[in-house]
Amino acid sequence: KAGVTQTPRYLIKTRGQQVTLSCSPISGHRSVSWYQQTPGQGLQFLFEYFSETQRNKGNFPGRFSGRQFSNSRSEMNVSTLELGDSALYLCASSLAAGGAYEQYFGPGTRLTVT
Amino acid sequence: AQRVTQPEKLLSVFKGAPVELKCNYSYSGSPELFWYVQYSRQRLQLLLRHISRESIKGFTADLNKGETSFHLKKPFAQEEDSAMYYCALSGRGGADGLTFGKGTHLIIQP
Question: Among A27, A65, A108, B96, whose CB has the most other CB atoms within 10 angstroms?
Fold first, then answer.
């Protein structure tokens, strides 16, 4: 079956702009989690959505938000972009909520903020 | 706050030699521990989890609650084991999102 897909794969934005990233989970998976990966901080948990509800949220400012649709697809939004938001954003889907279930990762969206 | 520490950024061993990738964690409750792996030009994927107590691709990991460690071991390294390895923790019995260590780049030399 098809894996997790993320669009776009690459994105260049200017400081102060906002951006929306999209994630399509594996068919049948109802949980989608988002992670930010940077060379300095590594992989950091942003938030998890399950059945259109945010279940968990990591330690990120309110500029980072997300949502999940009834078909389990998820979007992540970052407003008022800062240079430090440049990162690889990964989404992962799983059958059910919580990190205990195997997470299937997408290829990531590389965001560059100039 | 929960934390996962992987002390080695880079580990280089020869083919056939034993491998041990270290992982220490900090968490006040009962965590679920995992090892994820990323091979070159591939996606991050689950290697193994402590609760299943299984061996995957010859790798094993034992949860040591006394030492708060979850080291990954393999008795005889193979060249195809070269990859980035991430230790991860999920709190509240697995109900929370994953907290990752910063990863260890394992290089197996021929």
Answer: B96
The answer to whether residue A65 neighbours chain B at the CB level (below 8 Å) is no
Handedness of CA B21, B26, B28, B34 (dihedral sign): negative
* Closest-CA residue to A85 (of A56, A65, A111): A111
The answer to whether the Cβ–Cβ distance between A100 and B90 falls below 8 Å is yes
CA distance A101 to A93: 9
Chain segment B77-86, per-residue pLDDT in tens: 999 999 999 9
| Model confidence at B46: pLDDT above 90 | yes
Nearest to A46 by CA among A16, A18, A87: A87
Averaged pLDDT score across all residues of chain B: 93
Query: Hey, what amino acid is at A6?
Result: Q
